Structure formats: structure tokens, C-alpha cells
Amino acid sequence: MNVWENRCLHRGVRLSIGINEGGELKCQYHGWRYANRSAGCTYIPAHPADAPARRIQNRTYPVREAYGLIWSAANDELPFAPFPGAETGDWFALRPVPVNAAPEDVLAALATPDAQRLPGLSIRTGDTIWFVQPVDTNRAVIRGLVAGKPDLAILRQHNEILTRLRDRLERAAARKPAPAPLQPVFEKVSADLATMPEIAIPRGNTMPVVVKRKWQSADGVTGFELAARDGHLPTFQPGAHIDLHLPNGLIRQYSITNGPGELMSYVIGVKAESASKGGSQILIDSVREGDVLAISEPRNNFPLRRDAIRTVLIAGGIGITPLLSMARFLDKSSLPYELHYFVRTGEQAAFRDQLEALSGKVIIHRGLPRAEIATTIATTLGPRSRAQHVYVCGPSAMLRIRARHRR
């Protein structure tokens, strides 16, 4: 569950009318996107580089799911506190009832001679606890929890009581003079949004992660899932990479393969290099599940645009890692793309399960000679077009093929 301020940071448009894509929430006004959990901005359509979006984050609030309801608070420092007797019962959540009346009037109407007042806008009557959720000065929502598992007759009885109570409160509210309109408070636009500076990610900052999973992703490629020790990891954009600090003191860069909103852990792929100087070899041979490593915040020198008529992703070998993340973002956004993955053998195709889960056009080219690779790339790209975006990651020989075709 996410609890955010209901405001896009661009023009203040309500995010509650945005498009929920599961891993991201898209503002319908100008297409800004925010990541699951962190509410960090993952894409600004008018800005090709992701550096400005890297540190732009919407306001979040603590959230807890318990006793059949979602609990939150406007104060980050206010800890979740169960209501008295919460731990002793098995609670069933009643249907919420919106009421066009002041929250204080709703609470007073719920009170009965034997009612027990609880902290905040809540009352307990017998085996039922009523909560009044304020919406504004003249609107509220009644939420109820019943101890045990009530039968249908009890649920109908509660519904009839609340319906009559709502009608009475709304008739009384209609006779009252209209409340004074709320005065909106406008916050100044932050310097980041006003100037869009190139925000450098500090290289010296690191954070600990736990090796949650290590597995053989393909022949010669080992997958590592690096999980946050507490909470979630920072927002990233597709194409981003991290610095991984190895036990022998070396620092190596690895691309993040995650899809949108996946911030509880980062997944990387490490290729076993015969000429390794201790980077990939130490990871594959020495690091085990449960080990703690240090990583940097994600950085991105390979940002993905999402405004192309056609996006073509061309990967060679371990170059699939950043392009897999791009494909997963495009896939979730229902944007057209093609992913062409060149490998020597089928056993060397990494992250097959994630590739098979994509709904776009994914083609794995196995064992093609260099001349045929060049022909395949040329045929795939077709005539040059500004409406077509191409992303290539792979060995230097593949990049030279792409460069010759571009000329």
C-alpha cells in the first residue's frame, strides 16, 4: 500500500485521477511518473536526462495494514498504535459509509449512553468499534470493525442503522449555514523543479544490502538479488547501474535489471570473465547468500525515453541487463518495443524467466556469425527515423556494427 500526498509535483494535479500501472503511478496531465513505495519521480517527458528526476520525490506517509483496515498518519513521527483491545479479537471490517456532515457531528451521533470513547475520532459500542475519518470540514466516512465473524443478519442490521444515521445527519447538515470555504495553501516550487539542475549523485555514499539470493541465471552468468536491510532501496530509472563494493576492496559497476517500482531489492547479473582481475571472480566464488555488501545509490548514464513511436533494444551477452530493465518499464507502460538478444548458444541467454514474462516482441538470436548479426541488425532497424529510438548494449564488436549501420 502507498499513502502519498495527492498532488503531482509538476502542476499540482491530483494523483488520485492518475493511471496506476502497478509499479508506477502516471499523472494524466503531463505524464510524470512516480515509483511504487518511494514516490520518487521516474520519468519527466520533457527532459531526456533522468538526473533532475533522480532526487524529485513526492511526500509519503507511514502506512500499516491491520485488523481489516489501512492505517496512516499525516505525521511521519507518529507511530502506529493499536486501539484498546485490538490484539484480543478477530475483527471484521464493515462497509464504509460516506456522510456529508461535519466529522464532530458524526461522532456525536454515533455515541450512545453505553458507548466508550476511544482515542481520536473513535467510539466503542459493545462488540463494535466506530471510526470517523474526516474528509474535510463538512464530510466524513464512518468505518466500523465488528469482533468475530458476523452473520448476514448482523451485517444487514449495521447497514440499516448506518443508512438511517447518515440520512438524519445529512438532513441536519443541510439546515446549517454553509461553512466557510477552505483557504488553499500554496507551497513554493522547489529549486530542483524550478531550475532542473544536473544533480550529481555523491560517489562516496554507500548503503548496506544483503545477498538475498544467488543463482545460475545462464551458462557463465550468475544472478544476485541484493535486498535492503530495512525498508526499500532508492528510486532508479531504467538503464541505471550501481557501484558494488567487493570484499577484496575492488569497486565494480553492474546494471539493475529490475522492473518499475521494484525497490525492495536490486537484481544484477555477473558474467564470469576468464580475464577477470578479481571483480566478477570474487563475486561468483566467494560471495554467498546472507552476506552483507555495500552499494552506491543508482546512477544513470543510459536513460530511457518513453516518447518514441518505436523503441528497439539490441543486447549482446551480458548487455541484456540494462535493456531488460528498459523492456520491463516499456512493457508495464504498454508502449511498443522490440528486444533483440544475441547470444552464442541458448544456454547463455540470461534471465530467461523475466524475458518470457514480457508481452512485447522478444527475439533471442542464437549462434549467428558476425556478418549475419550485422545483417539482422540492419534489417531490424530499417530506414533511419527520428521517431524510432534505439538502445544497444553489448560487446565492442556489436557496438561497432551498430556504428557502421548508423553512418
Which terms summarize this structure?
Rieske Iron-sulfur Protein; six-stranded antiparallel β-sheet; Elongation Factor Tu (Ef-tu), domain 3; 9 helices; 407 residues; alpha+beta; Alpha-D-Glucose-1,6-Bisphosphate, Chain A, domain 4; 4 domains
What is the number of strand segments? 22
Second-tier CATH architecture of the largest domain: 3-Layer(aba) Sandwich
How far apart lie the N and C ends?
49 Å
Number of domains: 4
Q: Return residue spans where pLDDT drops below 50 for at least 5 consecutive residues.
A: none
Helix content: 10-25%
Task: Give a structural overview.
- With 407 residues, this protein is of the alpha+beta class.
- The protein has four domains: 1-60, Rieske Iron-sulfur Protein; 86-175, START domain (Alpha-D-Glucose-1,6-Bisphosphate, Chain A, domain 4, 2-Layer Sandwich); 207-295, Translation factors (Elongation Factor Tu (Ef-tu), domain 3, Beta Barrel), CATH 2.40.30; 310-406, Rossmann fold (3-Layer(aba) Sandwich).
- It has helices at 51-54, 103-110, 152-175, 191-195, 279-286, 320-332, 352-356, 370-381, 396-406; strands spanning 19-20, 24-26, 33-35, 41-43, 63-66, 69-72, 91-93, 97-99, 116-118, 122-125, 128-136, 139-147, 207-218, 221-228, 241-245, 251-255, 265-271, 292-295, 310-316, 337-343, 361-366, 388-393.
- Strands 7, 8, 9, 10, 11 and 12 form a six-stranded antiparallel sheet that branches.
- Helix 8 crosses helix 9.
- The mean pLDDT is 89.
